[in-house]
Protein 1
Amino acid sequence: MKTYRIVAVIERHYYEARRNMDRIADMVYWPVLDIIVWGFFTIYLARGNRLQPGLVSFLLGAAILWGLFFSFQRDMAVGFLDELWSRNLINLFSTPLTVWEYLTGLILVNFLKAMVGLVAASLIAMAAYSFDIFPMLPKFMPYMANLVFFALSLGVMITGLIFRYTTKIQGLAWSFAGLLQPVSCVFYPIAALPRVLRGVAWMLPTAHSFEGMRSVLAGQGFSWFHFWWGAGLNAVYFVLAIGGFRWIFEAARRRGLLVKQE
Amino acid sequence: MLVQVENLTKTFRDFTAVEKVSFHIEAGEIVGLLGPNGAGKTTTIHMILGLITPTSGRIEIFGKSIATDREEILQQMNFTSPYVAFPYRLTVMENLKIFARLYAIPNPRERIDELLELFGITGLCKKPIARLSSGENTRVGLCKAFMNNPRLLLLDEPTAYLDPEIAWQVKNILLEAQREHGTTILYTSHNMDEVERMCNRIIFLHHGKVIASGSPIEITQAILEEERETPALEEVFMRVVKGKAA
């Protein structure tokens, strides 16, 4: 892997973000909008004395972290779609750029974009609802790392599927994370799910991250159990995503799909 | 030998796009790859670039296999086609800066300015690609193709969208690159006059197979099956398309 080629991919998406209002909106607009909506909801609960202690932190903390996960997964796939929409794939892959350098560049640039969204949402939560996530970050960090890692695996997997099925399945870029949200237990504990879905939740690193986060907010300390469960699952999903992507990419080259993407 | 293609075959399910194609290109040659639409020209170029994996056969470039030494080979070659595009929101300069970085060009700004001037589009450097005409886009593609001073250049209909004056300039630039830098060029075009003027040698493809190979005059005589003093590739092309040669 050559660093300068990874930097070229980052540069390409940096220019895109600077010139494309959609990308700026994706980066900041949705995370901030989420916080505003959940913030008003906590204000409504507080007025009617329906606010249980710690609920503001549960809701706003969860909204901020879900925003991080969702935007990272979506931007991975949308970044690749940008190449398809602009018919740039042949240009890129007729240079010495390897697909792994391309993916690494995409991951790094989307990590930076997700961080911008995270900071924007956190600052709004602090300014408008006096919810300061920053002191909690050291304890949240391992759970956030698990969220980001899972988003990365999903992003790689969806990018692979787009390689294979082209823009016919581009909706997955925006919808797949939403599909996981009910079983990721973002705003409620795993125990709140029907028994049949609890098994599914246990297999998702997202559910373990949010369960761990609630443990921290409830003053029960850092849950190593949920962290390691999430990390272990992530390792499995990452290996599957990379293996699957490699297989799909080679199949796409065999079938000539790399030059017929639309 | 700069390029060696042996028994190259590509099948997509039950359709054979390229069948047992063999040819070679010597250093410094300009070779035309001709044939009607669907003859297998672009598929062959894409296999040489490593974008499509051949079903069977062997491609060696600079004495190395594209299957195993892709990065090293692609660092020394380049490609352009008016049918591929650049990110349209980015400016010409931004796009070319990205490709300069991908090829690790020293002093990229200097090189880009040089190329923009060479192809007469210096004034467009701050314009987004979306606002360029097809001809201007083609010239940006040519700037990209010359970025790394390639030893081997694959050009898929490089003058398709250019007006005659610009096309003439581009042809001169290509001939100069061959003369001064020894650039080897594999060239596809539907403009037969252009091919006659540009190419030392021609490989004629039809239904995925090589049906003739040689200088323009040799091709003319082989396919028209008569003695000629000057090449007549237009006539050859029509003969092939109408099915009187295969």
Protein 2
Amino acid sequence: MSAPKFIIIGNGPAGLEAAITLKEKAPDARLTIISRDPHESYRPKLLPDYIAGQIDRSALMARPFSWYDQIGARLRVGQTAVRLDLHAREVLLDHHERLAFDGLILAVGGQPRIPEPYWVFRDLMLPLKTMADADQWIDRLKDVDDVLIVGGDLTGFAVVRALLALNKKVRFVFGEEALWPTRPTPEIFRQAADRLIRRGVEVVPGKLRRIVRETDGALAVTTTEAQTSAGLVGAFFGLAPDVAFLAESGLAIERGVLVDEHLYAGFPGVYAAGDCAQVYHPQIRDYWVSIGYENARALGRIAALNLAGGLERVNVAAESIFDDDGIRVNTSWWMEFGS
Amino acid sequence: MNRIDLTIEICGLSGDGTIAAGGLLNEAMSRAGFSALAFDSYPAEIRGFGRCVTRSRFGFDRQIALENQTNLLISLDDEQSLSRLPFLAADAVVLFDNHPPSPVAEGKSIAGHARPAMSLFGAPFRDLAAAASGSAKGRNLAALGVLAGLLNLPVDAFRERIGKKFKSKGEKVAAGNIRSFDAGLEYVLKTYPDRLRPLPVPAAPAGQAEKVLWSGNVAIGEGALAAGLKNYFGYPITPATPIMEYLAARLPAKGGRVLQVEDEISAIGAVLGSFYTGARAMTATSGPGFALMTELITQAVSAESPAVIVDAQRGGPSTGLPTKTEQSDLLAAVFGGPGDTPRIVIAPTDVTECYHLTARAFPLAEKYQTPVIVLTDFYLDNRVENIERPSISADAVADALLKPAPDQAGSYHRYQVTPSGISPRALPGTPGFQHNITGLEHDERGVPDFSPGNHQKMSDKRDRKIQGALADLDPPEEYGDPGPLDVGVVAWGSTFGSALDAVQSARDQGLKVGCLKITALFPYHEDRIQAFMDRSKTILIPELNHSGQLNTLIGHLGRGRIVRLNQSTGIPLYPSTILGKIHELIGEDRS
């Protein structure tokens, strides 16, 4: 019998951890990793530090290309899965190549989420998810002194810190979309807003209504309660699982791929991990997505362990705390509010 | 200004338009001001089979050789292109069709084999061309559009060349092909706005001489035309056929004739006949055809008849490797045939020299009444360079026939023994200058004479004559340090460019190396070659043959260590291979 062929779609924290684990637990397996990014895997949580100029590009990189050779894995960069055929057990790539698999880990992550009411302003807001986004931030910040942050996810807080380090004037529309997908209490909101104000951030009240580019290039921003302006508007509304390509696969999809507590997606050998997984919690009898780097890695490892024959459960204990200079948020997947 | 050194390769199946796309790329890049050197390789088989590859090296400085590594590959057929992966630079860019007619199995797409450090740019070449022109045939042009957009190349140069190339097929076809190009351009700008890699474009210096994009074969044809060629006789054979095709299109307009004869024996016979009457004539062939010509070449040596013969070498022996390159006819060109048959053998090293040496072959043949063999090879014949349009003075190609003095009428000796070995030659039909010519050994009158003294005398005469031709043959050219050398590279033909490229790189690295170019292969300038060899601790002779034929010819002049670098792969000898050998030799000396 030939060695099983495993595919991991995604080369972010979850996919990378899954690869490490699979080579450890199933060393004979033929492993292919598909990465949409055209470059090495990187640590997304360090992107704000990169923008701030506190680290250089090389420090962002998680693993060099040579590492994949060393572990005997085949890395396909700049390639995107566009369809999953669970009957044929094949992944179709964007360049029309079919890849067969015995086991599959979906670790496709998410795309910056823009709430539907703001879609019309999409082109006027800059997210931060990829290296290309970071480069764009660096480029744009050369000509901009004041930045407005809307939304307010974990990356957004880290970007605020980076902007302050760059001596930029920072305003923050800290509305109800903040901290998505967690649902913090009003008290948590208030505490977070206080922290921001104490750092020198101007908190703009209200909910985003409108963004207009003025003739001088500045952006005029209107909320339900105020008007302000900025040279640059950053959008931080969390990540939406990037699972549209799975719509016809037969997998259960809600916000992400619905998986059980073993990250099993309901088809033999198919698992999901990281930002794209919506994990079932038997006690609360509901699904929830996790956020954050450490959670993604933990899920990637569990998915790989189970694909390699294990029966591990996700750890429901709240073990992952995001702490950004006093703004503390529990990012464990089923906790609905910050600690 | 940034230094540009970019090798672009297009690979497809015969019929994909690979060679056409490569030609358009070279023309457009040349027009944009880049220096270019390109070489195509294609299958020996008929259309519909086999892999076609075009490789072009572009830069601001003059390009003298192709390198073995490609920086950017355009794959028009992934199954064919997979074989090119080992020749891609680690960080190469790969453009490929990302929407084949139906999904392909794993491993059939080049994307599945590209190394992670390579940059993939998929574009639906077929779909773009079909949508733009109604036919997927223009996929090669869509691919060029993608390339032009990616590198920010001057698109008008592409559009203009495409329009011109397809004009003969009608405005509709030309316009459709330009639309296919534009579709590729638009696609890449829209799809990969963050990944574009604009290439600096050279500024056109004021007063720049006119440049032409010529192959070696075109340059040979132009050289022959410049020399006043009257008659071309030939029989088709790769890689010499384009010379006949080129002349067939141009020579009649200049009052000359091109005749395709039944075989190479007829071709050389007709050349001898034409030249005998005073009309300049030429033939071009390759190894197998040259072998057939051999007997008549020696007849021309004996009868002291002028002839110009281009031997466009290809892989041998026999029919060998019809579409691959080799430098393995050297000894056949110099010595081939029965008896002692000294003749002139010259070998250009680049496209410009193809022009000049071919043009000069005619007066040499006339003056020295001998076959002159212009020895090229597939890599030189088929390579394309953009060069300043060459020209040659009328004096340099003037009629060099040494006619007998009128007072010799009635007592004319066709093979008069002279100090130079050159006998005045009367054209047939000149009253009072009737004479015999024969391949039999003969006396001064041309009458067969087999006596020992006569054969010795006439052999001396013929040898003296050819050795005297050195005065009209270019001496070897030296490149590099004038002082003592750790390694002196001696090269000829198409390999010289690679040798010089390697030596330049080695010198940039601080190594004491030099290079000697030899274009006169017989007779050759012993003193100059020996002087170069004497100041070289090690002499390196790189050649595209197995037996080291230049080393066999001139190696006896070397009084130091001679090292051969021979390659019999059918592909050019690349600078990196020679540079590697230089490093090895210097390393050995130092260890």
